[in-house]
Automatic annotation (TrEMBL):
UniProt catalytic activity: N(2)-acetyl-L-ornithine + 2-oxoglutarate = N-acetyl-L-glutamate 5-semialdehyde + L-glutamate
Co-factor requirement: pyridoxal 5'-phosphate
SUPFAM superfamilies: PLP-dependent transferases
Source species of the chain: Nonomuraea endophytica
Residue(s) carrying N6-(pyridoxal phosphate)lysine: 247
EC id: 2.6.1.11
Underlying gene: argD
Residues annotated as binding N(2)-acetyl-L-ornithine: 136, 275
Record protein name field: Acetylornithine aminotransferase
Pathway, per record: Amino-acid biosynthesis; L-arginine biosynthesis; N(2)-acetyl-L-ornithine from L-glutamate: step 4/4
Keywords, alphabetical: Amino-acid biosynthesis, Aminotransferase, Arginine biosynthesis, Cytoplasm, Pyridoxal phosphate, Transferase
Binding-site residues, pyridoxal 5'-phosphate: 103-104, 133, 218-221, 276
Amino acid sequence: MSLFERFEKSFMPNYGTPPVALARGEGSAVWDVDGKRYLDFIGGIAVSSLGHAHPALVEAVSRQVATLAHTSNLFVHEPEILLAEKLLGLLKDPAKIFLANSGTEANEAAYKLALKYGRREGRRYFVAAENGFHGRTIGALSLTGKKAIRDQFGPFPVEVRFVPYGDAEALREEVTGECVAVFLEPTQGEAGVVPPPDGYFQAVREICDSTGALMVADEIQSAIGRTGHWFAHQADGVVPDILTLAKGLGGGLPIGACVGFGEAGTLFAKGDHGSTFGGNPVSCAAALAVLDNVDLEHVQKVAAQLRTGLEAIEHPLLKGVRGRGLWLAAVLTSDVSAAVQKAAADAGFLLNALQPDAVRLAPPLVVTDSEVQSFVDAFPKILTEATP
Ligand SMILES: *Cc1c(COP(=O)(O)O)cnc(C)c1O
């Protein structure tokens, strides 16, 4: 029986059956179980920041797992301190951190932090964006603006009002003195790598300031160098009240973080929140290795090369390119992203059919210029193969 058949026999059908079974990786390359090599242009959904089997990550994780793999939160350990100090250094503004294991848990922490603020201030509803994605647990799901994945699991305990993403005036109308918090991605990832218009995040900050609502930036997909900045909001020159991180932070090891700036960092009292695995030493060691080895200048250079290369392609199936840094969507003129993903895999490139008319590119941040070039060179033929 193939791995795919065994997968179907053992697992719930929530993912469908993925089309490729991977066995190993090195740098930006991965090999499937039959030995076919691919260039990985999706990076485990913007997670494998350092690519695969990066020596620094291997060394840090191996050393830590052989030293002390777990403590629980009954004990302090040095890797969590080093990680928190490193993150605070990169964030610059005074803040405090809670460590979780995933993106959705980082957002649960943000949600509970905001609830504490809301209850204290007599505020009663949240605002989030249509098509936004914040995770699959009930709190994060209630903030997720995609009806297909949210509505069947409602009703939710707290009211969430949705506004069109990128529309500052719509946001201004919905956010009042009764709004607890506004949850937004600096660029919408799962919605199709959709950046907002210039000035949107500054307007969000201003609307939150004038109403007292907390501004929560979900940077689970956009941070840790993905856009060419440590955090996407830094490019907008605004500081949120709460920031959530995960995906690229651990470079493949599970870790999430909720950052509270200023007063927001002091809202939890002892006993208000917790996680047995959150901030475990191995994941913290991995995250430190990631933060020590991401090279923003390199990201900016190869990102510009990828974008320019794709934009220069003239093909009837390619409408355009959007996104920031090494986080792009190639937008198609028809709904054939699944065929593009398949043709790319056949040609030895992994990418992701994100929306019916868009494929997502999020290669490791260590992708080389020659690897970028080989993708750019191959893409026109991939598009032709996928043309109906
Ligand atoms: C992936 C993602 C999440 C959820 O993270 P998980 O680790 O899958 O729980 C939340 N928000 C955004 C913006 C994401 O991209």
